[in-house]
Design brief:
- This is histidine kinase.
- It is found in: Cell membrane.
- By secondary structure, the protein is α+β, with helices and mostly antiparallel strands.
- It contains 6 helices and 7 strands, in the order H-H-E-H-E-E-H-E-E-H-H-E-E.
- It binds adenosine-5'-diphosphate.
Length: about 260
């Protein structure tokens, strides 16, 4: 538990630092972009080409800083529990469009409601990041399976999780897989094996932070040339109907 607390604290301070830097950079990049666009109107030939390059680099910088700001903005989730199954169903179209036509997306949701202690935006971020990574691991197409289940864990089965009921999210691809070197560093902020225009290395660090905030775990199983499976376990929030000594639910008076 100490290790988890230390990791969370480290991620948090890193997030704050990253957020501050990203914010300042964003302002500087806005100036660069504006000026480049302004001057480009009167430029021609080589100068116009160079300005286009400046503009592209500044735009790429902005995409990076907005990712950074997303990473930094994580605060403890408060408020309503959210159903993992609704989140998966709700995100399915977006995920399908994101991975493109050469990859098949299969979503299977469990029959049970799976209320978890986080929020919809965070679940979307988890899904999007994992599915984008799966896509990037399958340049020649393939299959991404997103699956949810209700699991009942006995004590000590999935350390450091206590026994109890969990919502499980599995994202599986049959892509290139990864080496043990990559697997060991996967969740580090800024660790990426992708080309600079494609990866920031913040995707899985963000996912990791969200999962920790929700008191869950994330594990990865990967074989080079075969594929990768990410498995997330999030403690089930107790539905009101099952609360001890509950039963004080009275029908809400009709509105109007
Ligand atoms: P990014 O996607 O920007 O590189 P991530 O933190 O999401 O950052 O991922 C870090 C690295 O982990 C990736 O660059 C890639 O090498 C590896 N990785 C993540 N998901 C997968 C996957 N499904 N299959 C193979 N490698 C993966």
């Amino acid at each position: 538990a100490n290790d988890r607390a230390a990791r969370t604290a480290r991620l948090e301070s890193l997030g704050q630092l990253a957020g501050g830097v990203a914010h300042d950079f964003n302002n500087l990049l806005a100036i660069i972009l504006n000026c480049a666009e302004f001057v480009a109107e009167e430029a021609s030939g080589q100068a116009a080409e160079d300005l286009a390059r400046i503009r592209d680099a500044a735009q790429r910088g902005r995409a990076l800083t907005s990712q950074l700001l997303l990473f930094a903005k994580r605060e403890p989730a408060h408020g309503e529990d959210v159903d993992l199954n609704s989140a998966v169903r709700g995100a399915k179209d977006l995920l399908g469009r994101t991975i493109g036509a050469s990859i098949t997306l299969r979503c299977t949701t469990s029959g049970d409601a799976l209320p978890v202690r986080t929020d919809r935006g965070r679940l979307d971020q988890i899904l999007l990041n994992l599915v984008i990574n799966a896509r990037d691991a399958m340049p020649d197409g393939g299959l991404v399976e997103v699956e949810t289940d209700l699991v009942d864990l006995a004590e000590g089965v999935a350390m450091p999780l206590p026994a109890g009921r969990y919502a499980q999210l599995t994202v599986r691809d049959n892509g290139v897989g990864m080496s043990t070197e990559v697997r060991d560093r996967l969740f580090e902020p800024f660790f990426t094996t992708k080309a600079p225009q494609k990866g920031t290395g913040l995707g899985l660090a963000t996912v990791y932070g969200i999962v920790l905030d929700a008191e869950g775990t994330i594990t990865v199983d990967s074989t080079p040339g075969v594929g990768t499976t990410f498995r997330i376990l999030l403690p089930l929030a107790t539905p009101p109907a099952e609360a001890p000594t509950g039963g004080q639910l009275t029908p809400a008076p009709a509105q109007g």
